[in-house]
Design brief:
By secondary structure, the chain is mainly beta. It has strands at about 1-5, 10, 15-20, 25-30, 30-35, 40, 50-60, 65-70, 75-80, 80-85, 90-95, 100-105, 110-115, 120-130, 140, 150-160.
Length: about 160
Amino acid sequence: MRLSEHPAGIEIGEGRHVVYEIAADAAFFGAATVNTHAVLWELDEPGPGHLVRCDRVDFPPGGIAYRHVHPGHGIRRILHGELTIDRGCGDRRTYRAGESWHEGADDPVLATASADEETAFVRVMILPAEWAGRRTIRYVDPADEDKPRLQRATVLLDVPL
């Protein structure tokens, strides 16, 4: 999977890709024409039994996604604010608007949003087909499941591959 930025927009034909139109907060699979800033994810062939999901995750100031995993890999891109991703073992980095990172399937991460401003990112993940329409976050510590979750994920598209 590869991500590229298209500040002046993009016109692209059919294919294995997702286009996200930042201003409209809209995602398209395959052919798309966007005349404003767009982000493009080009997808590799995942094999049978998979789907592509594009969703947006919003955090209030100081929001935390406790150490968790997802069942598929993908690339995330910060829309606004900043998010610190702690992978454990001293691997910790803060991402700001326009920056992106890859998370592998079942990579445990702790995500902490800016204390001073709202933060949002958009991501594209390749998931096993049985995750269609289902929430994918799984907490490493089951006790975290009962803690308040201030982040909100909004699915923009779920397309079988």
